[in-house]
């Protein structure tokens, strides 16, 4: 199979490309990535001589058409992915997540190429603590500019499938963790703060709940859907990993041998979603997928070890990321 992977220099995409090259010798991979602040070509160093890398924009219709004409399938990870950035500057989210997806859909339509669309559980909005988890039937109700643009892109995929017969599947996954995640995101931000002896930064009271899944489990699910998913269908991906943010910060502090209350409460995110939770029954029963990383604490320890061992990968982004948070108005509200 000849595969085009968009966003392959980002967190999930780079892990996907590495896993694919290591485990599937019958697949040839071309990566298309614009190398925005979130893309890092070094994330592909270990497989650089076994893939083709194209530096370019998914919204470039001619480039995308040419690349898509030469492959059997597209897995579309590329996106502006950080909620906080979408609150400060929404335009790149509209351009990449909506216009970029349009560009890919037109190309796969023209060349009749199989397409898998990577999306997020955030398109469903948020849940109260007692609500049942999201399913494929949950109505869309996005909260942030990021999740609204991801929801828009999902709807484009559904329309192109129904109206033009595009052979597409979609997956909406919960919060990923693991190696190669940008230091702007919650878990890597706190790990790298702790490596630097800085206190973790918890938004508001820290009662928001996220449903954590290891990135390798997400990517194995993507392969399962690409190979066996029903065309036109959406699959939810999650590993029953619900935890509130404060508990995650306390686990990280314990892993560093620190007092679990040694963190700061900082300004909350406007419109902050309370809880995400995934019911992945369809994926488990119809396609037989099961996660391999059942123990979040063990996965977190391995992730901490990766950031300790790979400081040269994240260090260049750390100071600028913290400066951006400060410039966006993040203030310390207090301690425990
Ligand atoms: P990321 O921000 O780490 O990586 C995004 C990648 O896309 C980067 O390499 C960047 O350079 C590239 N990119 C951005 N704009 C581009 C453009 N216009 N053209 C080409 N490349 C461009 O993101 P991530 O966390 O790896 O997320 C990947 C996908 O998974 C996204 O679609 C995201 O919505 C989805 N997702 C993420 C999570 C999560 O927890 N991180 C969970 C569910 C779904
Ligand atoms: O649910 C899937 C989504 O998960 C993906 O679609 C997004 O691309 C991905 O970024 C992630 O979105 P979140 O907003 O949930 O992730 P983030 O890492 O930004 O924050 C996780 C939680 O931690 C959230 O409740 C906000 C909180 N937080 C975040 C940061 C950066 C903190 O308390 N402190 C922080 O410093």
Automatic annotation (TrEMBL):
Q: What Pfam families does the entry give?
A: GDP_Man_Dehyd
The UniProt keyword set, sorted, is: Lyase, NAD
What GO terms are given for molecular function?
A: dTDP-glucose 4,6-dehydratase activity
So what does this thing catalyse? dTDP-alpha-D-glucose = dTDP-4-dehydro-6-deoxy-alpha-D-glucose + H2O
Cofactor(s) needed for function? NAD(+)
InterPro entries recorded for this chain?
dTDP_Gluc_deHydtase, NAD(P)-bd_dom, NAD(P)-bd_dom_sf
UniProt EC number: 4.2.1.46
Q: By its UniProt entry, which NCBIfam families does this protein fall under? A: dTDP_gluc_dehyt
Q: PANTHER family under this entry?
A: DTDP-D-GLUCOSE 4,6-DEHYDRATASE-RELATED (PTHR43000)
The name of this protein is dTDP-glucose 4,6-dehydratase
What is the name of the gene encoding this protein?
Answer: rfbB
